[in-house]
Each structure stands twice: as C-alpha cells, then as structure tokens.
TrEMBL record:
Composition-biased stretches (Gly residues): 337-352
The Zinc knuckle CX2CX4HX4C domain, residue ranges: 169-220
Matching Pfam families: DUF4283, zf-CCHC_4
UniProt feature, compositional bias: Basic and acidic residues: 295-321
InterPro entries (alphabetical): At4g02000-like, DUF4283, Zn_knuckle_CX2CX4HX4C
Domain of life according to the entry: Eukaryota
Annotated protein name in UniProt: DUF4283 domain-containing protein
Organism: Brassica carinata (Ethiopian mustard)
Region (Disordered): 295-352
The DUF4283 domain, residue ranges: 40-116
Length: 352
C-alpha cells in the first residue's frame, strides 16, 4: 500500500495492523483566541467524491463562478477538503444562499467554519426538490412540509412551483420516490399517493445505493473480486481471436451459408508454389505449378473427401492423381473425356 493510500484511512483499520501502537503527541496549552477570530469569514468545503474531483482546479474555478476571485483566497486542506477566506461578509452569505454547487460532475458541500469540526464536516447540502404527484386536494404547506421533514430539514416551501428546499444529509442515501399517507382533511379516505422527487442541480450519485460519495463502479454492493474482474477482461480477447480465425477461413474458402463452421473449410497447401483449396461446390480446382501438390498414395495425403463428395457417391480412389503437368483434375465415375493438355482449368463430367 502506498503512502497516498494510507492517508486518511489508518483510523479505519480493524485488523491487527490497525491495533498497533501509534505515536501520541501532546500540544501544550496556548491562547488561540485571536487565531479563532481570524476564521469568522471562512468557508470550509468538502468534495463528495475526492477521487474524481480535482481540488486544486476547484480552488481556482469556484471563485470565478461566484465572481469574487479578487476578494477570496482558497487553500487545499487535503483529503478532499478546502477552505475559502472571504473579505466581505456579504459574499459569504451570497455564496451559501446560492447552493448547491458541483465540480467535476460531483457535488460539493459548503459550510461556515466552526471549532471542533467532525471529520466528515461539512456533510449537508441544501437542495430544491420538486414534488410530483401530490393530489390537488392536499396541495398545501402542511403536505410539502411533511415531505421535506421526512427527507431532511425543511428550509422553505414554494407552493407556486410545487417544490421545497431541504437540507440533505449526504451520509444518507437519496430518495427519488415514496408514498404519502393523508390522514387528515376531507376526501382522504386513508388513500396513499405515490410521489416522485426531482432534485435540482444534482450531479453525481451511485445508481445502485443512491450515495453521493462514489460511482456505481466503486459501490460496495456491486464491486466484484479481482479474480472475477480479471476473467471478465480476458473473455472479450478470446472471442476476438475466435472471430479472427473465423474471418480468415471465410476469406479463404467463402462463407457458403455455413457461418461459424470455419474448420470445415480449410486451406490445402502443396509443397510447390501452387495452392489448392476446397470450394463449397466440392470441386477441386488447380493452378499450374512446376511441382506437384499431390503426395501419391501415402496415408498422409492432403486430399480429403468432403461431406458433399460422400453424399454424391465419390470416393477417394475416384480422384486420380494429377499428371506431371501439375494441374489437378477429376476422373468421371464412368466414361468422360479429358479437356486440354496441361493448361488452363480441366473440364470434367459428373457421374453418369
């Protein structure tokens, strides 16, 4: 494990390595009152997915988006955290009110600095959420307030557009749909309404567990073992090799309507420069060569009877050996004539 992988993770170890004795350091007491006052105009930020977000680029770009680049100073705090020191209080209020923000297609949490911050601070992001499916007879503030309180902390209700502003705890999974029971009011009759939740300005979340902190590729619910991942990567390579071999057979012999059976259509090579091959019409076609491509009556002869030959009644003995000119020809089963003499393609007659 590299040093970068150890940063921020040593406290999470549960095995024997995590229980080893660590160096403990004590800082003597000193007056930090003035130091704390310096952070009264500081915003602390945290990237929801630090592995996918560039904090250094974020520090440069966010002030430009806020249009306060000449009135703010940013610092990378490490572990996906950063801080911005503002000059004007008004700028801080404007930025916090304009949330939520995202960078590199993942969300960013912002909050005022405070002493004794938890490790995952800030962990809250305000979202405007549009509510879809509320019956008109219950379209009122209590209904939207109840929905917002179930999702987080309701800040504002907008009945004109049917939405609510809710502070969401990013450590919990998102909710995109739910059912609402209407207990009070007229015409309720104990009915349930299915509603959908549309988060405005939401970027980046796991489609499996609906977390804001990782993508589906790194979700603990879907991550496979390294061995399985390796097998998945190797499978397409073997398939590509099979396709390459099949493609080579098709180029040499033609498909012949037998896609995927390349082994039945093989290339037949002689010892000379001539090349012989088997066509799907079961004819032996030869080209002139200075050397014969037939090896006599040896058992290792390269001539093979095809499936079509057997169906037509041909036998291996009926294929006579080529003459010294080197051209291959087929002897008819009974009778027939030989065309030409040592040149061109021999004409043959089929069985009578």
């Amino acid at each position: 494990m590299s040093q970068s992988q150890l940063l921020g993770k040593s406290g999470d170890l549960k095995n024997a390595e995590g229980t080893r004795k660590r160096l403990k350091i004590s800082v003597p007491h000193f007056d930090n009152t003035e130091l704390i006052k310096q952070y009264d105009k500081t915003i602390i930020g945290r990237c929801m997915n630090p592995e996918a977000q560039d904090v250094k680029a974020l520090i440069v770009m966010l002030p430009k988006i806020w249009k306060v680049e000449d009135r703010v100073a940013g610092t990378d705090l490490g572990l996906g955290k950063f801080q911005f020191d503002f000059v004007e209080e008004e700028d801080i209020e404007t930025v916090l009110k304009s949330q939520p923000f995202h960078f590199d297609y993942w969300m960013v949490a912002l909050a005022r600095w405070q002493p004794k911050m938890p490790r995952d601070f800030p962990a809250a992001i305000p979202f405007w959420i549009k509510i879809l499916g509320v019956p008109l007879e219950f379209w009122d503030a209590p209904t939207f307030q109840s929905i917002g309180d179930a999702l987080g902390e309701t800040v504002e209700v907008d009945l004109d557009y049917g939405r609510i502003k809710v502070i969401i705890d990013t450590r919990k999974e998102l909710s995109f749909d739910t059912t609402v029971d209407f207990i009070g009011g007229e015409f309720h009759e104990g009915d349930e309404a299915f509603i959908s939740l549309n988060y405005e300005k939401l970027f980046g979340f796991c489609e499996t567990c609906l977390s804001l902190s990782h993508s589906v590729d790194y979700c603990p619910l879907t991550v496979k073992s390294p061995q399985k991942k390796k097998e998945v990567r190797e499978l397409p390579i073997s398939r590509q090799e099979d396709r390459a071999r099949s493609y080579k057979g098709v180029v040499i012999n033609g498909d012949g309507g037998q896609h995927g059976k390349g082994r039945e259509y093989r290339e037949y090579l002689g010892k000379g420069k001539g090349k012989m091959y088997e066509e799907h019409e079961t004819k032996w076609v030869g080209y002139r060569s200075n050397r014969t491509s037939y090896r006599g009556d040896e058992d290792g002869s390269r001539f093979r009877s095809s499936r079509s030959d057997r169906s037509r009644g041909y036998t291996a003995e009926e294929r006579t050996r080529p003459h010294q000119g080197g051209a291959a020809w087929i002897k008819p089963k009974s009778g027939g004539r030989r065309g030409g003499s040592g040149g061109g393609r021999d004409s043959t007659e089929g069985p009578g």
